[in-house]
Design brief:
Rossmann fold; disordered C terminus; Helicase, Ruva Protein, domain 3; globular; 396 residues; alpha/beta; three-stranded antiparallel β-sheet; five-stranded parallel β-sheet; 46% helix
Length: 396
Amino acid sequence: MVGCDDQRKQLVEDLTRSYSGEPKVIPIVGMGGIGKTTLENEVYNDAYIRSHFDVCAWATISQQHNVKEILLSLQCSTKSDTFDINDEAELANMLQKSLKGKRYLIVLDDMWKTEAWDAMRLCFPSENKGSGILLTTRNNEVACYADTENVSLRMSFMDQDESWSLFKSAAFASEALPSEFETTGKQITEKCHGLPLTIVVVAGLLKSKRAIEDWENVAKDVKSFVTNDPDELCSRVLGLSYNHMTSDLKACLLHFGIFPEDSEIPAKNLMRLWMAEGFLKLGNDLEGEAEKCLQELVGRCLVLVCKKSQDGAKIRSCKVHDLIYDLWVREIQRENIFIINDIVLDYSDSKRRYLSMQKMQPFKCVTGDKIDCCPYGLYRALLTPVHHHENNDLLK
């Protein structure tokens, strides 16, 4: 994290300061890609915060908020149990009981509507002294609505020094920066106008490029994005990164568009989808090729790692940023893949039609064995001939 240390310290101080009355609500406000969730995550995982609060719980809200799923997410954060409850009122009651008498910190990430705040605010005990609620939003109306003490934190764009520091660390990590790259790199960061997401995505694009000609070409492209609209600039920069990919990597990345927005995706399931669809180069080690693709997308700062294996070697789950997700969905639609409700229909090729279910449902195998959730690629493979012989082991 670059450029937000003072804000992080201020949030930690505000949340841990002794006070009485209802839980303190602190909204973090700013446009998409400005670093709200990154800052919130730093605070949430701060060692002092973890020792100060009895309970810390996190839930992502999203544009189309689902109260039941939010409650389940918070409940799972407070306990290790799994739940199979459909009634929202019962879930809300369970959450209140689990928080009662405890000093808690609740994080509500990516809130879009005041209705979402109204649906959640009564689920948190009001008599718990010293408790706090952090929420992030792009909507100033939501921030003002939830902020009863006028303590909202409004995030600003990075200055030139911060932008360059972030770009340099993302593009070169611990490597020494060759002097001939500095001038071009600073020209690129200047055109990103201090928006962290665009900076790290362009840095991810150049991370594996060590020819100055490649950097100069990217600099020319970024300079051509003449716009005063930060959202439009961000979309164009993300599109630039997409255009510089190989076709197989593009196909793998677009696949994120079939999952619900903000969903945490098990890496194993995702890679099996890629394998079943035949997106990867044929060879003896399809799984290794899938892992390589996923690591490259993470390296390009287009995919976020949620969980890793205990030794840190493998990615267990991942997700994509909202703005990147929106771009991939638009690209899917542009290429004539239509998303209707929870179904993806591909009519781009009249000889090949299939559907991709966003919501995984229990499925009966032809053998009669039940599997908890059936990846749509496997579902399709069971209904149609498998394109490649190497994919047959997916059906075992």
